[in-house]
Amino acid sequence: MKRALSALVCFFYAWVVMAQAPPLPAGVERVASVEGITEYRLANGLRAVLFPDQTRTTITVNIAYLVGSRHENNGETGMAHIIEHLVSYGSPKHPDAKKEQQERGARRNATTWYDRTTYYESFPASDANLEWALDLEADRMVNAFVEQKILDSQMSVVRNEFEAGENSPADVLLRRVLSTAYLWHNYANTAIGARSDIEKVPIERLQVFYKTYYRPDNAVVVVAGKFDEAQAVKLLAAKFGGIPRPAGKIPETYTIEPAQDGERSVTLRRVGDVQELCVAYHTPAAAHPDTAALDLLARVLAASPAGRLYKALVETKKAASVGGFNFQLREPGVAIYRASVRKEASLEEARATLLRILDGVAAEPITKEEVERARTELVRQLELGLNNSEAVGMALGEFAAAGDWRLLFLHRDRLRKASVEDVQRVARTYLAPSNRTVGLFIPEAQPLRTEIPATPDVTALLKDYKGDVAVAAGEAFDPSPANVDQRAIRGQLPGGLKLSLLPKKTRGETVTGVLRLRFGDQNSLRNRSAESDGVRTMLMRGTAKRTRQQITDELNRLKARVSAGGGANFTEMSLETVRAGLPEVLKLVAEILREPSFPAEELEQARQAGLARYEAMRSDPQALSGTEMSRHMNPYPKGDIRYVATPAENIDLLKATTLEAVRQFHKDFYGASEGELSLVGDFDAGEVHKLAASLLGDWKSPKPYAEIQRPYRKIPVLQRSIETPDKANAMFLAGMSVQVGDEDQDYPALLLANYMLGGHSSSRLYTRIRAKEGLSYGVGSGLSAPARDRGGQFSVFAICAPQNAPKVEKAFREELERALKEGFASDEVASAKAGWSRGQSVSRGNDPELVRRLRSHSQYGRTMAFDADIEKKIAALTPEEIAAAFRRHIDPAQISVVRAGDFKKAGVSQ
Questions:
Q1: Residues 336, 279 contacting (CB under 8 angstroms)
Q2: What percent of the chain has pLDDT over 90?
Q3: 20 exposure class (CB count in 10 Å sphere: 0-12, 13-18, 19+)
Q4: Predicted TM-score of the model (pTM)
Q5: Which of 92, 428, 756, 764 is most open to solvent, judged by the fewest CB atoms within 10 Å of its CB?
Q6: For the domain 721-906, what is the CATH superfamily, name and number?
């Protein structure tokens, strides 16, 4: 009787809920709901996953097509990625998709992977913008411009992206390892494809591929952010419902990689300065229960500083760094373990040590402490990520490609439940010598075969899955400058530290913050930049009360992220946590800053990593060109805090820096007399003010602070070419000094002129050099204008094939001359004003960006009224005023150029 009554109550409750829910459009069904996220399905097979989050000021639309490099045949490698580039251009209803996205202030991108191709845009929340985005994606689904004329321009852009990857020996080695680990399955081929396929693929094959896989029943649309769910469902039905499901079936891949029957090896020989190790083990698909234990195993082995590989390789100086991760794919994938080894160290010794640790897990079982530490960190990362609907929206697309979006939550649950025995079992099962690709072939009398489990039936797996209770929803927040100023609470501690606090309700009760301490002056910091860097590097590596690992464990316990950064005369601590953990996080940050212990062994480990980093720069075109241009634009004498050191000089400085000097620098300079603490999120402002006063209010800076000035100076023109042998990609940089500060009358006009020239993805440089001529994968321009002096700089960058560097420079100079001669048309200016303004709104709606604005304004005694004033001035600008300001400050004859690449091989004159 009780069971019958209970069933009746449940039925009545479900009936009431259904009766209250708004009716769905015809042909739409509600499929599943987990933790505030709901999946709907249209009659044509389209899956739509909706995640309303009223705390956001943006909406993210992410459409994932379940097609990637796994679906490519011989001669078609890279095809899914090329189509990504073509589809991004637009369709008949949206002939210039990138321009539309820019005008609406949207952040957008498209990426291709093994199992999926995704397109997303994140834009200011409004019904009109959501309708526009869904209309764009619906039209691109079946009507995109997959045409020869666009392929002609984009082929070289994609090839340029391919060449950019070829510059990194570590990336190339990973691709070689994968192509050796897989004999038959297409996971052997990364999304970028083969150069020959990129260059020769016929447009007809691309069109067939597009029509085959771009269809409603092969796509998942994720909408996340501030929107009305019922309205969104209606829009989805209206925009996508009329697209018919094609008659033919979606081709299925059926190749199963056989069990590996012995170690495989691959050797890569190229120009470079850091040795690399990479080991791959075959593992199950993302949906398999073992995936969670494999993720935990990767953290146990490769985490810094507690991981077994870290202790065996980095702490002993056999390697500069280590890493480990597990690919989560729709079909059986791989786990990767790697190490970077400096030239002066033995690669063979590092290899032997790495394999000894991996093979030795069976003899030295995984401990409960190791698993709990790994679990705490991974779950913390997932839980913090689930508080950001935009990030969740992207993650849902990834897990949808792996089988179902709900796998995100199932994986979290499995991480929580995986036992020490599970982790030990997967280590024994998958870390078998015969299942790896690395090193030499070793015959065995009794070869071990590791059979990879079949991909689970995801539908059955998730049939009754419910997930956790949804987290705190937060509030809808208006990020306008006026509202930010109205909500912000500003103050100053007795010792001098300035506070800018913006309490608001956030999803998951998150808090984002930044604490900057500024110290020293031009004279006191002379010849002490390396010591300053050393202190900053060591801050997170131990205090008088905690070891490096204990700091990490405490941050995991508090569900927090904290990192140290900065420059020669300031240190900045960035933090992210939740309301309950904020007080303890602030105490920990104060402890890190005030009581660093500077362990000798940690300094040596940091030194090795730094040396490897600088050594890798010695043959990298981007690093070499960037250093050369920065040195030219900042011609200060050696020893000056503003001096830009070469990689070789930095290596010498790093080798010479002693522990005593680092400790002394902290004693000489660190204090809280000058600096700012800014927080945005869910917290009690009064409590934070009191806590900050008790933690930092009495901490006086030992030496006086004075801002380092970089006044305007006219820089002589430089034309420099740097030869980087065996690098497939080149770097082009151009720049000049500009006598302007951010309070100058001409600054708003220059800001908008730069935006139109090269400051966004529909700018003149982008359109000419990437879109039309296909010379560069990445190109743009920038304008810096300081707050306290007038030492501004105008800069341009482009990555390109070495043989295209002269064409890139020619195109840049022609576009610059055209802007100076003709100015900017009224419609272009109007579009730029709208796009720039919307972009500012999106930026203020992002808490990590907003908190940094508040900190910067606090430093210079400003409020958000400064932003509002800039926006007002930009809105009032005429095309004639913009052109006049641009001509006053930008002189093509004063432009310096630095380029780096393998020009000799490409036959380019120097």
A1: yes
A2: 82
A3: exposed
A4: 0.88
A5: 92
A6: Metalloenzyme, LuxS/M16 peptidase-like (3.30.830.10)
